[in-house]
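in:
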C-alpha cells in the first residue's frame, strides 16, 4: 500500500483505547501512518489520529488519506482567514 513510488507507508491501528485510566473512560480508535524513504530507510513523516469510526485493515489507508485531505483543507481555510483579516 502506498501513494508514491520509492516510499513505504506503514500503518498501525488499534481499537477501543481508553482516553483515561478509568473504567468509565471514553474509548476511541487510533491509527498511525509512518512514511519511510525506501532507499535511505529514513522516516519522512509520521502522523496519527483518533476517531470514533471503526478502523480495520480494509479502511485504515482511506482514513489516513481523508485525514490528510482534511488537514490540508483546514490549513487553506486558516491561511485564507489570515489574509482576509490582514486586508
Amino acid at each position: 500500500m502506498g501513494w508514491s513510488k520509492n516510499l513505504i507507508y506503514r500503518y498501525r491501528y488499534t481499537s477501543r483505547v481508553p482516553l483515561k485510566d478509568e473504567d468509565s473512560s471514553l474509548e476511541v480508535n487510533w491509527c498511525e501512518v509512518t512514511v519511510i524513504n525506501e532507499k535511505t530507510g529514513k522516516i519522512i513523516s509520521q502522523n496519527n489520529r483518533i476517531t470514533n469510526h471503526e478502523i480495520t485493515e480494509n479502511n485504515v489507508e482511506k482514513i489516513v488519506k481523508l485525514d490528510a485531505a482534511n488537514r490540508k483543507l483546514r490549513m487553506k481555510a486558516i491561511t485564507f482567514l489570515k489574509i482576509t483579516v490582514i486586508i
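note: The beta strands are 7-18, 27-37, 43-51.
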